[in-house]
Amino acid sequence: MHSFSGPILLATDLSARGDRALDRAMLLARQFGTSVIALHVIESQVRALLAPQHHAGEREAQARRTLLRDLDGLDVNVEVMVRCGDPVRLLREVADENGCSLTVAGVARDETLGRILLGTTVEKLVRESTAPVLVVKRRARRPYRSALVASDFSEGGRPALRAALALLPVSDITLFHAFDMPGSRKDEVTAKGFQRTAEEAAAQFLDSTPELHGREKPRIQVAAGLAERVLIAYADQTDCELLVTGTHGATGLMRTAIGSVADALIEKAPCDVLVVRQLPRAQV
Length: 284
What we know:
Blueprint: E1 8-11, H1 19-32, E2 36-43, H2 44-49, H3 53-71, E3 78-85, H4 87-97, E4 102-106, H5 120-128, E5 133-136, E6 147-150, H6 158-167, E7 173-179, H7 188-207, E8 219-224, H8 227-237, E9 242-246, H9 257-268, E10 272-276
Parallel strand pairs: 1-2, 1-4, 2-3, 4-5, 6-7, 6-9, 7-8, 9-10
Antiparallel strand pairs: 5-10
Helix pairs in contact: 4-5, 5-9
């Protein structure tokens, strides 16, 4: 079972939208009885524009004051860090050095200098972070009550399911698989065959998940169509609060999850997105 007992790393750009990530990080810290490290990174090119040195130093001090003000009075143990450099590299270093079990980030929509986790930065963080990355979109008013786990039912998809099981009761989890039939074979009989095969693979996948032995199983949902399109549509229809995906798999949805599919989910999903890497066995 994945554990979120280590510190939670909150990546913040100090924007108002970033408050959503902050609130979710605090909710999760209370849920798992852990602490939070709030990290703001001033990107290197921004620091260069702030020369002379005392201007850069004032920017760092101001960022620290803003963080401390935003975090004042919370009932969670929070450590504040302000660093200068490459955001992705520093986020990974801080997470690894402190044994963080999760990185929580928001998504801002503007391109103001100095903001972190915009566009490709999120994508790079997801690719390189050893800890799961939670991209927060919705306001965090309560613990998650529903999760949709994208899966191709291979070993590469198991870490995502384990992360979901650590966050929510099994009854609140739906395992989702999308299959795309060959262009020349779109008839109803063929579709039913693909669906039956996928459902059988899902049942075997759940039976071989040790954490589920003797327990209730998540719901299974199989749909035909382009992976990110049908997944996002289903999440929207069901008002799902969390979409969980892995970064590696043998076929189908997860084959390209760390590329175009994951990017599409982070950008277009109507809910928060948790991306869980499958680490090499030596690192597990």
